[in-house]
Amino acid sequence: MEEMNINMMAILVAVAANFVLGFIWYTPLFGKAWAKEMGFDTSIKPTGGELAKGMIFMIIGNFFLAYVFAHNIAAWSYVPGTKEVSAASNIMSATIFTWLGFYLPVDLGAVAWEKKSWKLFGINTSYHFMMLLVAALILTYM
Length: 142
Hints:
Blueprint: H1 8-29, H2 31-38, H3 48-76, H4 87-113, H5 118-141
């Protein structure tokens, strides 16, 4: 059996890139709208410990995403015909199918069962799509 080539440096870069993307997405871009839709009082600032805990959990989650996604992308390279398709096509396929199968259903469930708004759905699911796209780009080209 062939061994999968997994680039740990690419995984770490994807972790860092998605951490930065999350900060940008949920702070300057959509932070106020997201907080409003979540029902958070923006006048109450989280403590340093709460921020540290959130950042640590985010880094751990980003690592799991990048590590598993790297294996997923590498596994698809064994499918006949995959090597003849452009890298951009493979990146988009990995991103779209992972988002459709694993993120979109959970995001829709939040609207259906948790009574979250469609606006919050749009903010969160577009972030999930973008983080997959960023990770796929890094994991493919590094």
